[in-house]
Amino acid sequence: MLDRRGLVATTLAAPLLLTARARAQQLPTLRLGVLTDLSGQYRDNSGPTSVLAAKQAVEDFRPETHGFQVEIIAADHQQKPDIGASVARSWFDREAVDAVADVNNTAIALAVRNLVIERDKTLLISGAASADLTGKWCNPNTIHFAPDTYGNAHSTGNAVLKLGKKKWFLVVADYVFGQTLEAEVRNVVQAGGGQVIGSVRYPFPGTTDFAAFLLQAQTSGADVVAMCSTGGDMENAVKQAHEFGLGTTALIAAMFGFITEVHAMSLPIAEGLYLSEPFYWDLNERTRAFTKRFVPKTNGNYPSSLHAACYAATLHWMKTAKANGPEAMRSGRAAIAAMKAIPTDDDCFGAASIRADGRFLADLHLFQAKTPAQSRAPWDVYNAIATTPGVDAYRPLAESACQMVRG
Fold first, then answer.
1. Top-confidence residue, 24 or 285
2. Whole-prediction pTM
């Protein structure tokens, strides 16, 4: 039972609480939709943890202290471009969504790209990987925060070539991302004096048995088998290659791998694997600080580069809203132009910038998976080998097919 003092305190507090709620309701609200894979083969390297990364950015930035609110919503595109496009269309037309993030499938990113141009909305790609998204498909409504096929192919490919591995066989996910990665790897191998002696494309999504494809690789005589895939597909292919003993005759290269796959494979299978990422939780004090406050919310799933990219994209979008006012973010073209004009800085990537074609210029790190004996903890999986500065890691503007920079 409340005494008189408690009753008075409650009576006085009630109007204050109502006033605070009223003020919050009066703040302008920006809405960001995380369109991702919540149930398929990419759910771990992006998926639900990318949704949490966007929410972490809101928690860290506290937009209400800067005069506006941000709501995060999410949906599963089910790896289907028609479903992804339908969700984005509904978000724009019926739910007042201002920006879409993640979109961890290049084919779906292209479908959403067309919608953001039509509706003048914002697309913050923190999942899809084709370098053509800032090349022939560049547009003034999009920024590409995720690592891309050009950067990873060059970082990992050149490292493997320097080991003297010249005969390559490619196992390719048969959709836009895999095809683009395949083309980039072929260019790197040929430029480095190597030869692609064979390749095979497998149906995406839906392939779980890679035996027939790996048998072709094994009988080809290649000294490198390059996985032009990612997520659960790459993980399953490497595991099955290990079972076949393929790693005893050829080096297995993950051309687009993430920490989530390495952890899921386990180091006895993944050890020695080369791969490139712009983010690793144990790179420096800032990445460790981010991971420390983030992992308790993810059920132990440590952040990949795609989760980091979703965090960085959401944070920079809010910083731009603070600088220009939330109403300036309603137009995608205006929002993207303003985002490019402001240097980026966050705990995942540090200080960076966004190029005129929409390419986010984060440093790109070459890693090699540790041996089990080298690892001190379950997610301590990488040895850092080399770093390519962001300004050098991605396709040069002089070689770009982006009409925004070529005129």
1. 285
2. 0.91
Question: From 3.40.50.300, 3.30.930.10, 3.40.50.2300, 3.30.980.10, which CATH number describes the 23-147+283-362 domain?
Answer: 3.40.50.2300
Beta carbons of 55 and 34 less than 8 angstroms apart: no
Q: Taking a C-beta distance cutoff of 8 angstroms, is the pair 27, 288 a contact?
A: no
Least confident stretch, 177-181, 231-235, 326-330: 231-235
Q: How distant, in Å, are the alpha carbons of 26, 146, 321, 351, 381 from that of 343?
A: 30, 17, 14, 7, 31
The CATH homologous superfamily of the domain defined by 150-278+364-393:
Response regulator (3.40.50.2300)
Six-digit token string for 88: 């984005």
In the 3-class helix/strand/coil scheme, how is the chain assigned residue by residue?
Answer: CCCHHHHHHHHHHHHHHHHHHHHHHHCCEEEEEEEECCCCCCCCCCHHHHHHHHHHHHHHHCHHHHCCEEEEEEEECCCCHHHHHHHHHHHHHHCCCCEEEECCCHHHHHHHHHHHHHHCCEEEECCCCCHHHHCCCCCCCEEECCCCHHHHHHHHHHHHHCCCCCEEEEEEECCHHHHHHHHHHHHHHHHCCCEEEEEEEECCCCCCCCHHHHHHHHHCCCCEEEEECCHHHHHHHHHHHHHHCHHHCCEEEECCCCHHHHHHHCHHHHCCCEEEECCCCCCCHHHHHHHHHHHHHCCCCCCCHHHHHHHHHHHHHHHHHHHHCHHHHCCHHHHHHHHHHCCEEECCCEEECECCCCEECCCEEEEEECCCCCCCCCCCCEEEEEEECHHHHCCCHHHCCCHHHHC
pLDDT category at 247 given cuts 50, 70, 90 is: confident
Strands 122-125 and 69-76, by their bridges, are: unpaired
Whether the pLDDT of residue 58 is over 60: the answer is yes
Residue 322 and residue 66 in contact, taking contact as beta carbons nearer than 8 Å: yes
